[in-house]
Amino acid sequence: MCGSRGRDALGRYDEDFSFVSPVVKYLLFIFNFIFWLIAMAMIGIGVYARVVKHAETALACLTVDPAMMLLVVGVLMFIITFCGCVGSLRENICLLQFFCISLTIIFLIQLAAGVLGFIFSDKARNKVTQMVNNAIVHYRDDIDLQNLIDFGQKEFGCCGAVTYTDWSNNMYFNCTDNNPSRERCSVPFSCCISTKDKVEVINTMCGQGVQEVEYIEAGNVIHTNGCIDKVVDWIHSNLFLLGGIALGLAIPQLVGILLSQILINQIKDQIELQNYNLRHRADPWR
């Protein structure tokens, strides 16, 4: 019968019966193994960025060093998923509880960060503005940082943090009279308005001296709006997409918590069954 679950006519369980489901056990193992591999990749990228690239000087403008963040997140993921892999294979309750509790804490931290970011959006905006301005100062210090800023300005059609004159904070684009740089009072080429017309030679100096002209005249050549406002507008117009991404990040964590908790309960039931069988063998009348 389907409801007997390995019981005999007297309601006793068979010797080979187990409450632990192989499907849950190995599904949890595969789940953890995939994220364990991802953690290994994150650690490798973090070590490369930190040791090989020596990017700490150029990226000092950022609030958090991306290389260190990758290393910390990768190491945490490695430890947590390793405990999940071993705990599921060995049916170890302690390791599974550590895995489950760790995932729950991380999920709650992410949820709290999202709520606090929404409540204190003005402070978060000011912090991001400060970070972008610091990145502008170090624009020429690292090619990767330069490519990142150029990509953002091209993608969002913007220039600077709040306005295009923010580029005067950079020593090469500074608009003071005593600046000997040939890029004085200019902005990067990524600020320029791209034209649809096919031309053989692209004018990469289109932003030359635009900080010295009137705002309206500069707007004919470059994007004068800052990137912060552009990014905020993009977020407002893509809330469903961002919500889907957030849900996609939350679902694996919730699945891991659910599977680990199910497996923990099954292991506990199996332990109780084994204890019952031991008592039954010692005293068959109990």
Features:
mainly alpha; 286 residues; 61% helix
Commentary on this structure:
There is one protein chain. It is elongated and about 95 Å long. The chain is built from eight helices and no strands. The two termini are 26 Å apart.
Task: Write the topology of this structure.
Blueprint: H1 22-52, H2 66-90, H3 93-119, H4 121-137, H5 143-156, H6 215-219, H7 227-237, H8 239-282
Helix pairs in contact: 1-2, 1-8, 2-3, 3-8
Q: Spell out the helices and strands N to C.
A: HHHHHHHH
Give the radius of gyration: 29 Å
Q: What portion of the residues fall into strands of 2 or more residues? A: under 5%
Structural class: mainly alpha
Distance separating the two termini: 26 Å
Low-confidence segments, given as residue ranges, are none
Biggest pleated sheet: none
Helical coverage, percent range: 55-70%
Shape: elongated
Mean pLDDT: 84
Quickly count the helices: 8
Give me the count of strands. Answer: 0
Brief overview:
The chain is mostly helical and 286 residues long. The protein has helices at residues 22-52, 66-90, 93-119, 121-137, 143-156, 215-219, 227-237, 239-282.
